[in-house]
Please model this.
Amino acid sequence: MQTKTKWSPGPGAKVLGVALTNNDGWVVSAAGPAFGICPDCGRRTRNRHGWSNRSLQDLPVQGKTVTVKLRLSRWRCAHQKCERQTFTDRLPTIASPYARRTRRVSEIVGLLGHSAGGRPGERLMRRLGMPVSDDTILRQLKRDAARAHRDATIRVVGIDDWSWRRSWRYGTMIVDLERRSVVDILEDRSVASVARWLEQHPSVEIVSRDRCGLYAQAAREGAPQARQVADRFHL
Ligand SMILES: [Zn+2]
Model:
């Protein structure tokens, strides 16, 4: 029982079994809670309407991938005055609604993508037993960036290359230098896309970029109001 608890992807998921397969690594079968709590009226129900299954990539074990097959319930709200008829277990501490990996794996994807870039991040994640594609890394970075900067006014940006899909292809990373965090990842490295991004963010007052002409040109076109400085890392 103790061992099974350790395989759990998080609170609310009860582990039913663990098996090591030849092709898919560890497969953990788990089920959601034995009762539901209606998101509208807050009452408990044990009136099950059906099942739904989710497959989530979780942290590796012994260098092998772990896939959690999570069986969730669809419940019927029994309260007469409640307008909601059915709802599904959510378990937000384990994974976001449509995610294909657990939150704790998504966090690592974001951290590695941020520091290593797309292709090296993909290689490293594979070695660590958490294979993800570079597209997934890019999407995760964009999601994290959008969440962190939903209401922020961006004044000072740093623009730099970001190695994406195969080492010969580069994207562009845009960093809020005041908050020291990534605001966006663009899929290519072109004057047009960087200029467009800058046009959409008229609050930018200072653009820090490398000494190559591409980002300088983009800043001239997209943010003529901004002052340009050459990034000290590129001097
Ligand atoms: Zn209800």
